[in-house]
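Page header: ASSEMBLY MODEL / two components / 501 residues total.
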Amino acid sequence: MRRVVVTGLGVISPLGNDPDTLFSRLMEGESAIREVITEGPNGPSSNVAAAAAFNSELYFPPLQKTDHIDRVGLFAMAASGMAVRDSGIAFTDELRERSGVSFGTGMGAAATLEETFTQLLLRDPDRVKPLTVLKVMNNAAGAHVAIQHSLGGPDLTYSCACSSSSVSIGEAFRQIQYGTADVMIAGGAEAELTFGFFKAWNAMHILAVPDREDPSASCRPFSRNRTGLVLGEGAAMVVLEERGRAIARGARIYAELAGYGSNNDYRHLTKPSVEGQAKAMQLALSDAGVAPEDVSYINAHGTATALNDVTETRAIKSVFGDSASRIPVSSTKSMHGHLLGGAGALEFVISLLAIAHNAVPPTANLNVPDPDCDLDYVPGRGRSGQDVRCVMSNSFAFGGTNAVLIARRD
Amino acid sequence: MPTPFERVQAILEKKYSLAPETITPESTLESLGLDSLDLIELLFDVEDEFKIRVPQDGGAALKTTTIQDIIDSVQKMLADTAAQTGVEPAT
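Prediction written out in full:
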């Protein structure tokens, strides 16, 4: 089986639009969560969320037409461009035919959908914008990335809620392993901080209660006083490359993508299962040929819901046994929010940066220990000067799709 | 009162930042750098401008190649509307 390495990273994130800024802010325990006001038909509505500061003019030439692309697609294109530049890859005509795109998103073009129905139902029942179909189709973002870089290999979009972009990276890994592609631009994006989608998430009763005194501290994974998840938006894309060709061209290699495990809980649409999560981790470990004690850091799914954090803790303990207590596990969602379909990719990038910097990012706002969450969650601030050789990034989704990625220093 | 051509010209000028002198009735969409998706958007703006609806007739409107083709279709639609309502079109 061919080996796969990561040679480029790109992010549009609530904590900055380049990987180094993102990682240094995470290490400080800085949260991007703020009050976000959206306008509804009866006035403004307040939520807490982690928005990305995104000025599309910085990423697209002045004459490039972008109004037919939803925010989620613009995020994906900007992050992909960054990842490709970072990789230093030069696509020849031959290589383009062997290179593809693997994209993940949960809700796709949420803002365009909402805007379209608002226009249709509240303003003019006869008129929607002419390119609405092309803007809301779920594969639009991935297609724009393929067109942007003229890639003729596989172009696939995966949608499995919060594990979408761990799956998209894992499936891209397989394409290269099996020899159907040599290079894949893989990752995901989400952009759904809209009036209606906030309402929908609120109705699920799993959003965090906003912290009135300090909105940025509203998301508290593994802390006893956690109240739920906080939505975030952004994109993360990586360049995956067959290891031999990356070495031959002298590319900088962030890490080897060594293992991928995916399965389904199959018991309930939203309730996580210890067995299901544990199995996904075991599948990834065995795929990578890595022993549990060799894992140096776990980026947890860590949503800060009552159910996830206890379930994930138990699943980690069941897989890692005695090693569980000495492996740092952190939830960076406490700072960048939950990017849903983009979460897996962003957290995978953060895990790769942990290897690159030999540093472990923290879990912010973990102030009250929970006896049911008793691992080393790296509370407060990150730890530098660590020996981070092998990382695991966990994603568990509504719908039951679990996906776990493992990377190791090459 | 601007002519139908001038009105289409104004839409193109505004939407695609085209210099008005580059747009003539004989201009093809291709020569203006517009593709099939641009045409879909242009037809939408033309519908608003002339208060007409391009019929859903199997994509005939998408066979448009020149600006004059658009003007001809618009005038035909305005005339049809006038015939149905008995009101002379404003153009």
